[in-house]
């Protein structure tokens, strides 16, 4: 017996859940929608701006869940957690014992931060996930003297960039920084943000350099090329030259290591972290920014398909292997055969795209219509800000899945812009655009249309030629 009933039931108040509810409000305003959210605050998207057809930038903020009712009069909000799905009777159960009947269900429960060590459940190991964990982090920062940061993605990079007045030991698996989003060349570009250069110096020292080379091996060889030939050796050491007011080195980066153990101890510092190179680091707390695990924190009456990453396998319409149960955002695993220039990366952009697709497919199921997968899945795009610069990542921006045989064209103007084109068989496969390059739309077209760039030769990135003119 169910207590409540709705045509559409959506679980989770993150970007995915809210986008799904918003899209359903537009597509099917007269139908009942029910949102199950564990928290009264939900994520909302604002200031959406389009750089091109598929390249969208937006801000994310938190808002009262009740404000969603303004756009969706038929929305019911249940402040509770999903605990069980009965797919035979199409009923979900919440932690508070409420039974909710659905016609179609969308699971948007997101991810839970992977902590590097759960062996001692230390309160001093922080996984940054939401506002609450950010507050916790800020209060620890006030009292701490030394922190250890683990991870090499956008979050770890931002923490390193945004914190001052505390000693930081940054432990990374790779041999260059911010590996998730950028390559060693872009990492080199960012080095200057760690130095205190004035704006005047910035414009005065802007020098254009341009390099073309073919990657022979792996990114490691690319790294070597960039360090030795293109962009100067051992640049990353400069990051570590910043000192605090008392003259102590503020940042130390330890490359190509992982954490073996974290032990609480008595002494000057409450934690001791052992690394794979045998080094022992003492610190006040550890920030674990090593990604998330999909939040499959509820039970089922049957076994849904699960991807290798632990996410709920979904097809191109975001439907799980169980009929009428959809999933979107971090909890989902894209199990369809993706287009040549798209791959899954757990980001706001994709949470939003997947959720909007799920809502369209759910609506189509209820109204018996046929739909196609959304165009946005043709091209991986991500807009973000890193170290104060706008970054646009497109397609196979780091040569993902392209094997060894591709070319990289690079143009970099220190402290102004960094442009990298990944080219295979004369056609653009991906790009990294850092700074105000104004090349987003052109790159999108070049990738989507697979235009042969061979006739343009090196001019494609010649700073003296406006490449846009070629394609007008
Ligand atoms: C610290 C941090 C910074 C990030 N910064 C960026 C960034 O700058 N740019 C970017 O693109 N991406 C960023 N990401 C990734 C991005 O946050 C996620 O990809 C995105 O938020 C996923 O959205 P979602 O709706 O799938 O999940 P979430 O935002 O995790 O939302 C899931 C919601 O479901 C709720 N929930 C979970 N289980 C249940 C349950 N059983 N019942 C009911 N509710 C439940 C949760 O409480 C939560 O409210 C960041 C991630 C982290 C951790």
Commentary on this structure:
The model is unreliable at 196-240 (pLDDT under 50). The longest helix is centred in the last third of the chain and has 20 residues, at 348-367. By secondary structure, this protein is α/β, with parallel strands linked by helices. A hairpin with a 3-residue loop joins strand 26 and strand 27. Strands 1, 2, 5, 6, 7, 8, 20 and 22 form an eight-stranded mixed beta sheet that branches. Strands 13-26-27-28-25-24 form a six-stranded antiparallel beta sheet. Strands 10-18-11-12-14 form a five-stranded parallel beta sheet, covered by helices on one side. It contains nine helices and 28 strands. Bound molecules: flavin-adenine dinucleotide.
In short:
With 472 residues, the chain is of the alpha/beta class. Helices cover 20% and strands 32% of the residues.
Count of DSSP H/I helices: 9
Query: What's the pLDDT, averaged over the residues?
Result: 82
Q: Could you tell me the CATH topology label of the largest domain.
A: FAD/NAD(P)-binding domain
Per CATH, which architecture of the largest domain?
A: 3-Layer(bba) Sandwich
Q: Which value, in Å, is the CA radius of gyration?
A: 24 Å
Number of domains: 3
The coarse overall form would be globular
In the predicted model, the low-confidence regions spanning at least 5 consecutive residues are 196-240
Q: Specify the helix fraction band.
A: 10-25%
Characterize the main sheet.
8 strands, mixed
Which ligands occur here? Answer: flavin-adenine dinucleotide
For the record, the CATH class of the largest domain is Alpha Beta
Structural class: alpha/beta
N- to C-terminal distance: 63 Å
Q: What is the strand content?
A: 25-35%
Strand tally, please? 28
- Let me know the CATH homologous superfamily of the largest domain: FAD/NAD(P)-binding domain
């Amino acid at each position: 017996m169910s207590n409540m009933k709705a045509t559409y039931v959506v679980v989770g108040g993150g970007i995915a859940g809210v986008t799904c509810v918003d899209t359903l409000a537009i597509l099917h305003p007269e139908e009942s929608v029910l949102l199950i959210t564990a928290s009264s605050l939900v994520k909302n998207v604002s200031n959406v701006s389009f750089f091109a057809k598929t390249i969208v930038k937006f801000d994310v903020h938190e808002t009262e869940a009740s404000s969603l009712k303004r756009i969706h009069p038929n929305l019911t909000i249940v402040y509770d957690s999903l605990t069980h799905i009965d797919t035979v009777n199409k009923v979900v159960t919440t932690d508070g014992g409420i039974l909710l009947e659905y016609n179609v269900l969308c699971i948007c429960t997101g991810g839970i931060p992977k902590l590097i060590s759960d062996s001692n459940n230390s309160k001093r190991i922080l996984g940054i996930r939401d506002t609450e964990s950010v507050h916790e982090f800020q209060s620890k920062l006030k009292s701490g003297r030394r922190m250890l940061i683990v991870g090499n993605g956008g979050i770890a990079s931002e923490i390193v960039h945004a914190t001052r007045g505390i000693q930081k030991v940054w432990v990374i698996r790779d041999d260059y920084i911010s590996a998730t989003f950028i390559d060693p060349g872009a990492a080199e570009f960012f080095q200057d943000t760690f130095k205190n250069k004035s704006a005047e110096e910035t414009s005065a020292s802007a020098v254009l350099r341009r390099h073309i080379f073919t990657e022979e091996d792996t990114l490691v060889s690319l790294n070597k090329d960039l360090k030795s030939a293109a962009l100067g050796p051992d640049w990353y050491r400069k990051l570590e030259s910043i000192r605090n007011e008392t003259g102590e080195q503020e940042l130390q980066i330890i490359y190509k290591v992982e954490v073996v153990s974290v032990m609480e101890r008595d002494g000057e510092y409450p934690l001791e972290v052992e690394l794979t190179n045998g080094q022992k680091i003492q610190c006040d707390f550890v920030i674990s920014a090593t990604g998330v695990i999909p939040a499959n924190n509820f039970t089922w009456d049957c076994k849904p398909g699960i991807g290798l990453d632990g996410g709920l396998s979904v097809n191109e319409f975001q439907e799980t292997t169980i009929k009428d149960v959809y999933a979107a955002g971090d909890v989902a695993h894209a199990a369809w055969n993706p287009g040549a220039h798209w791959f899954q990366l757990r980001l706001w952009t994709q949470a939003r795209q997947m959720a909007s697709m799920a809502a369209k497919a759910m609506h189509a199921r209820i109204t018996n219509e046929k739909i196609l997968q959304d165009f946005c899945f043709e091209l991986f795009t991500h807009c973000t800000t890193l170290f104060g610069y706008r970054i646009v990542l497109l397609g196979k921006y780091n040569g993902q899945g392209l094997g060894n045989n591709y070319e990289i064209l690079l143009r970099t103007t220190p402290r102004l812009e960094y442009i990298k084109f990944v080219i295979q068989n004369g056609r653009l496969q991906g790009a990294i655009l850092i700074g105000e390059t104004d090349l987003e739309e052109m790159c999108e077209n070049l990738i989507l249309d697979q235009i042969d760039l061979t006739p343009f030769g090196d001019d494609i990135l010649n700073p003296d030629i406006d490449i846009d003119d070629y394609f007008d």
